Amino acid sequence: MHRPALPTLLLVAAMGLGLAGAAVAQQVSIGGVSGSRALLIVDGGAPRFVAAGQSHQGVKLLRVDGDTATVEIEGRRQTLRVGEAPVSLGGGGAPQGSGRVVMTADSRGHFSPAGQINGRAVQFLVDTGATEVILSESEAKRINLDFAKGQRVTVSTANGQVNGHRIQLDSVRVGEAQIFGVSAIVLPQPMPSVLLGNSFLNRFQMQRTNDQLTLDRRY
């Protein structure tokens, strides 16, 4: 039976969510609105309320209309709706839809990009020790994955043998790169992030230079 190696699972449980700056584009979403202010979330970092005309990490809020907010990055405007998946904005290094992702490590050397599974916003943690994308049951329920119909599997973790479900994700997106048909395993224990394992990473050529990790699409 194919079993993912998860040597970092205990470490992940003890870690907070790191900030990740995407060099290609910033991941921006709206967590809420209050009057003329919007709760901006940039690159998966801590949310911050800003008023029209103010900026947060290079993202300028232009106006708030009901449950939508219009922002501007590097002269590009985008209207975002509360609760929708993060949108990639700014960054002229690669065109829209390219297969390159550039991530910056946090203070602990971890790469924790914001991304999407089946169009729903998630927080990833790059883990080359996981053979597949790994997420908790609570996270799978939050993004409406019907994992109970998946294949029952037993995997080896730092806590011993754990039963889970293997499923096929319709799509996984990080920055401008989107992969369709990605294998994943859902485990019962809580996890602060979704492990971005090799069922996604193997589709890229990976290169690390100092605190940057570059993924170039292979196929």
Ends apart, CA distance between termini: 26 Å
Count every beta strand, where a strand is a DSSP E run of 2 or more residues.
Answer: 18
Q: Report the mean per-residue pLDDT as an integer.
A: 80
Number of helices: 3
- Note the main sheet: 7 strands, mixed
Low-confidence runs of at least 5 consecutive residues: 1-24, 92-97
Structural class: mainly beta
Beta-strand portion reads: over 45%
Rg from Cα: 18 Å
The residue fraction in helices comes out at under 10%
Give the topology string: H per helix, E per strand.
HEEEEEEEEEEEEHEEEEHEE
Question: Could you walk me through the main structural features you see in this protein, from its secondary elements to its overall organization?
Answer:
- With 219 residues, this protein is mainly beta.
- The protein contains 3 helices and 18 strands.
- It has helices at residues 9-14, 137-142, 198-201; strands spanning 26-34, 37-42, 48-51, 55-56, 59-65, 68-73, 76-81, 87-89, 100-104, 114-117, 120-126, 133-136, 151-157, 160-174, 177-187, 194-196, 204-209, 212-217.
- The strands form 4 sheets. Strands 10, 11, 12, 13, 14, 15 and 16 form a 7-stranded mixed sheet that branches. Strands 3-2-1-8 form a 4-stranded antiparallel sheet, with no helix packed on it. Strands 4-5-6-7 form a 4-stranded antiparallel sheet, with no helix packed on it.
